[in-house]
Write a structure and sequence with these properties.
Layout (H helix, E strand, L loop, with lengths): L1 H17 L28 H9 L3 E6 L9 H7 L6 E5 L2 H4 L3
Antiparallel strand pairs: 1-2
Helix pairs in contact: 1-3
Amino acid sequence: PKLREEFARREDECFRIYGSNFSGGRREASEYENPKPHRLGNAVRPAWDSGILRQAGFEKIEFEIDITNGLWDDKEKLLYGLTPMFMISAEKPEETANVK
């Protein structure tokens, strides 16, 4: 609920400053008032992804929690900054890379 409230506040601020969001004027915050269950549940990412990759046999798992600074403009940061984009990389050992 707190994240939804903060997203709605950020969306209002985005409309005030920029006159729009990225959804053609449709308020995205209203879509989250009665959220449907998400297939990842309450998973915290990218830690969740890291665990799944390790279970799948990947090694050298590295991630950056927030890569938005080099990718997003100020409007995107305002609107979507609560859930920053992350980057993850992993390597599969050669001896298992071709095994399915």
